[in-house]
Amino acid sequence: xxxxxxxxxxxxxxxxxxxxxxxxxxxxxxxxxxxxxxxxxxxxxxxxxxxxxxxxxxxxxxxxxxxxxxxxxxxxxxxxxxxxxxxxxxxxxxxxxxxxxxxxxxxxxxxxxxxxxxxxxxxxxxxxxxxxxxxxxxxxxxxxxxxxxxxxxxxxxxxxxxxxxxxxxxxxxxxxxxxxxxxxxxxxxxxxxxxxxxxxxxxxxxxxxxxxxxxxxxxxxxxxxxxxxxxxxxxxxxxxxxxxxxxxxxxxxxxxxxx
Length: 259
What we know:
Layout: E1 5-15, H1 22-30, E2 36-42, H2 49-53, E3 62-66, H3 73-83, E4 86-91, E5 97-98, H4 102-113, E6 117-125, E7 131-136, E8 141-143, H5 144-149, E9 159-161, H6 162-167, H7 177-189, E10 191-203, H8 213-226, H9 231-257
């Protein structure tokens, strides 16, 4: 059995043309008060990401690797997980960042709850990086049934056991690959925990999978189908997901519109 470093976190950052903001993500990870490594996996960026990463040459906790061909975000995250040396893996997208103390609090919670996965609430920020003050809360005890109704977990908020991340690698970039992974994890382990504090600062995007809501809806339905559900059950789950999505963002857009 492969040995992992106990109480050590491997932070996996998939990177593609992100020189405008990745330093903030890396620095927020390095500021966490736990033993860790940061694994930046460059998915064949065409900007000067290699040049930017030279600023971390003297930082032994940062590992930078570059794919030989463009693999997409799912396989890029999987490659990062394959390189992980820690007992735990944490995912962080290059355009997001963490509040101080995020990993320390999650390590305490995941041990206390004896869970395999832990997430947090998130504060939304604009595409330009301005914090909005609008927080998406999270249930602190999450079941598989909860996850079928809606995706309670933001990818950049996740801390999970490395063995479980390798047991259920991400796949199907033509769906919500992270949500599909969570569904598979929860189907087996049935339970996860969370911290209802906005320890993740989540950047809204107009170009990503969640930026176009109609496109995101199609990907969500496809996610349920890839999870093995027939059309009827997939539609039932999707209906709940869509209702939650309206509720989740209605307050934010109403607040923004009032400004």
